[in-house]
Amino acid sequence: MFKRLLFHLLRGNRIRLVVALVALTSGGAVISALLNLDLDINHKLSQEFRSLGANLVVSVPQIAASAAGTSALLDESALQTIAQTQLPGFVASPYLYIVARAGSNPGQSVVVAGTWLDAVTQIEPSWKITGNSSLSRDDLAHCFVGRNASRSLKLSPGSSFALSYQGHAANLTVAGIVDAGGSEDSQIFVNLPVAQQLASLDGKVQLIQLSVPGSTEQIHTVSAHLQSTLPMLEVKPIPQITDAEGQLLSHIRFLIFSTGLLILVLTALCVLATMAALAMERRKDVGLMKALGGSIRRVVRLFLAEVGVLGSIGGIAGYALGMALSIWMGHRVFGASISPRWEVLPVTVILMLFIALAGALPLRLLGNVRPAVILRGE
Q1: Which residues pair with residue 210 across a beta bridge?
Q2: Distance between CA 184 and CA 115 in Å, rounded?
Q3: Under DSSP, is residue 229 helix (H, G, I), strand (E, B) or coil?
Q4: What is the dihedral of CA 326, 328, 329, 334, to 10 degrees?
Q5: What is the DSSP code (8-state) at residue 300?
Q6: Per DSSP, what are the bridge partners of residue 58?
Q7: Which residues contact 224 (CB under 8 A, 6 or more apart)?
Q8: pLDDT in tens, the chain (378 residues)
Q9: Is residue 261 packed enough to be buried (19+ CB in 10 Å), middle (13-18) or exposed (0-12)?
Q10: What are the E-state strand segments in 184-321?
Q11: CB of 21 within 8 A of CB of 270?
């Protein structure tokens, strides 16, 4: 009997119930999309910031460099120590900078960066390289040339030229032209042994750049771990990247929380208005049920069951729509798909049930209906 009455109640006021269901479904869709986005935002944001380049730098402490009076160098063996830490997903690239002469005698002064050409393209995925972008670290005959340097030296992919520094020379072939949009456009990138041979600095580098995946907290944890492993060196995050990532993440989460709270309030108000109108229409039904001996407890249970059904359907339908919305937002904002999270489903259903019950407060007024008044037609 209870199920039959519930079924007839759901059929009896379809228009108003559909309005409430649409409000709950819309609210559930936005809430589930925001929750799913918040759960995956950390990973996606970290991926976006990794495209900006390295986020950790290992170098000789500034005090030691000042005491030496020159640009202090560190031993290349530090790379082996870093590799032994088994950091998941990190990429390391050493750097040795010199100012050499390029071209025919006397040539033009140009900054030469000795590094691992296979690693630097992983650390700097935003670089646009015209030509061959895949070079191994053992290839000592090819190099990358920055866009501005290539124009100045009139070089293109396949061109050959000579580098000279302090009586040493190296003949190189341009593999690709780098368009980085920064100071790298005026540099020449060679594999590390070439720069070490030109400068007679075998086994030495100036600094090591690391690209470490993860959140700001994880990057600082890795930095502290490496600092304890390499106590004689300085390990520090690049603040322009790590701080910006942390600030942006906090701002996005505040926006998600504020938007979600606003959506919950608006959904509750919509359901509240619909249920208030529904309560006025059902005064006669409640009066008749009470006149036939129905207890107020059973009447309230009947209406709460109706609201519970609406909240559950709205939550489940909202979750399905929200997952599609979060995937669309992921492609538009991050250029990658946001993975649906099943743990969002129960949270969404519970929230929509809570909103439906909060919006159903006007139905409590039906308990004050007097059967005699209704039967008299008042």
Answers
A1: 56, 92
A2: 13
A3: helix
A4: 110
A5: H
A6: 208, 235
A7: none
A8: 445 555 555 555 666 677 777 888 888 888 888 888 777 766 555 555 555 567 788 888 865 554 444 457 888 888 877 777 666 667 888 999 999 998 776 678 899 999 999 888 888 777 888 988 888 888 899 999 999 999 999 999 999 999 999 888 999 999 999 998 888 899 999 999 999 999 988 888 988 888 777 666 777 777 888 888 888 888 887 765 555 555 666 677 788 788 888 888 888 888 777 777 766 666 666 655 655 555 566 666 767 777 778 888 888 998 988 888 888 877 776 666 677 788 888 888 888 888 887 766 665 655 555 554 444 445
A9: exposed
A10: 187-191, 204-205, 207-211, 234-237
A11: no
Tokens at 252, concatenated: 């996005």
Q: Which amino acid is at 149?
A: A
| DSSP H/E element including 282 | none
The total of other beta-carbon atoms located within 10 Å of residue 115's CB is 23
- H or E element that contains 366: none
Task: Write the CA distances from 336 to 34, 47, 89, 255, integer angstroms.
Answer: 16, 10, 19, 21
DSSP state of 335: S
Indicate the pTM of the whole model. 0.58
Residue at token pair 């819309």: 26
SS3 223: helix
Q: 3-state class of 339 per DSSP?
A: coil
**16 in Cβ contact with 278 (< 8 Å):** yes
Q: Are 282 and 368 in contact (CB under 8 A)?
A: no
- Work out whether strand 91-102 and strand 108-115 pair parallel, antiparallel, or are unpaired: antiparallel
**Two structure tokens written together for 116:** 């691992």
How far is Cα 325 from Cα 35, in angstroms, rounded to an integer? 11
Angle subtended by helix axes 344-359 and 296-333, to nearest 10: 130
* Backbone angles phi and psi of 156, in degrees to 5: -145, 165
Asked whether 225 and 231 are in contact (CB, 8 A), the reply is no
Specify whether the CB–CB gap between 353 and 308 falls below 8 A: yes
Q: Does the N-terminal peptide bond of residue 106 adopt cis geometry, omega within 30 degrees of 0?
A: yes
Q: In this structure, are residues 93 and 115 in contact, taking their beta carbons and an 8 Å threshold?
A: yes
| Non-local CB neighbours of 94 within 8 Å, separated by 6+ positions | 76, 79, 114, 115, 116, 192, 205, 207, 208, 209
* Residue 79 three-state SS: helix
